[in-house]
C-alpha cells in the first residue's frame, strides 16, 4: 500500500483512497478464474467494491471483467470502464437473464426504514437472496451480512465469535439471518460455495459510526452513550477483504466476522473529536456495556490488521468536516439496541 495522506480534500481523493487494492488482493486476481460480478453495486459500499476490483485486475495485468448490477443505473461506474447492468432482482425472470459469472459479491440489503414496512425489508433481504442463490449455484459467493444476527452482548465478553449462536433482535436482524439461510440452503443442497461476510460498521469520511459521532460533536448535539462501545473498519479494507474471501468460499457455507481489531469507546472518540474541533462534547445517558460487537480474530489472522487504522480515519473525518466535505445523509443509528430501524 502507498503511504497514507495527512488529509483528504475531495471526493476524488477519497474514492482513490477507498479503492486502493492491497498487494495480496492483486496477487489473488492473478490466479482467480473468471469475471467478478457485484450484486447491489449502487449502495454505500458497492461503488468502492467495484472500483477496488477493477484496480486490482488492472494491477494484476489480467483480463477479467468487473460487472456491477443494481436496480438503478450506475453511470459513474460505467464511465470508469466497469460493465453495468440494471436489474430488479425481485423479478426472477430478470435475474435469470444475468450472466453466469464465477465470482459473486452479494451486497443487496435493506435496513433503514424497516420499521413500518417490514414486508419490503423481508422481500429485499430474503426473497432477493433466494433468487441470487438459486441462480448462481456454480459460483463462488461472498454474501454480505451483519453482526446484527448475533445477540447484543456485553463489552466484557469480547463480542461474538463465528461459533456464537445467532439470536437476532428485531425484524431487520431476523431478515438478515433469513438472507444468510437462503445461501446456506443452496450451499448445503447444490454445492454452492459461500462465505457469509458478517461485517460490523464499515467507515469512511461521509458516513459511519465515527462520522456520526463527529457531526454531533461539531454541531454541539448530545451523543447518546447507551451503546458506548463499537467495532469499525475502514471501508477500503472491508472491500479488499471481501474480494479476497472469494478464495475462501466453501460448501457448506463458511462464516467470517469482519471488523477492526479494537473495541472503540464512543466517549473517547467524541473527546478526540472535541480536541480536534476545539469543542467540548455533549453527552447523554450512560454506557450500559452492551452493543453489537464482533470478535474478528479469525479474519484479522487471515488478512492482518486493516491498512488504515481508526485513529487515522478520525483525523481525516475531522478535517473533512472542517472543509465542508460531502455528507451521504445516512446515519448508522449505532445507538440502537432494540432492533428497530
What is the CATH architecture term? 3-Layer(aba) Sandwich
Q: How many helices does DSSP assign?
A: 12
CATH class categorisation: Alpha Beta
Main beta sheet: 7 strands, parallel
Instruction: Give the strand order, joined by hyphens, for the main sheet.
Output: 3-2-1-4-5-7-12
Percentage of residues in helical conformation: 25-40%
SSE class: alpha/beta
Please tally the β strands and state the result: 15
Which homologous superfamily in CATH is the superfamily?
NAD(P)-binding Rossmann-like Domain
Strand portion = 15-25%
Spatial extent as radius of gyration = 19 Å
User: What number of structural domains do the residues give?
Assistant: 1
Low-confidence segments:
none
Mean pLDDT over the residues: 95
The outline comes out as globular
Order of helices and strands: HHEHEHEHEHEEHEEHEEEHEEHEEHH
Q: Termini separation (Å)?
A: 37 Å
CATH topology: Rossmann fold
Summarize the structure.
Helices cover 39% and strands 16% of the residues. The chain is an alpha/beta fold and 341 residues long.
Task: Walk me through this protein's architecture.
The chain is of the alpha/beta class and about 350 residues long. It has a single domain (about 10-320), classed as NAD(P)-binding Rossmann-like Domain (Rossmann fold). It is about 40% helix and about 15% strand. The strands form five sheets. A seven-stranded parallel beta sheet has the order 3-2-1-4-5-7-12, with helices on both faces. It has a two-stranded antiparallel ribbon with strand order 6-15. Helix 8 packs across helix 10. The mean pLDDT is about 95.
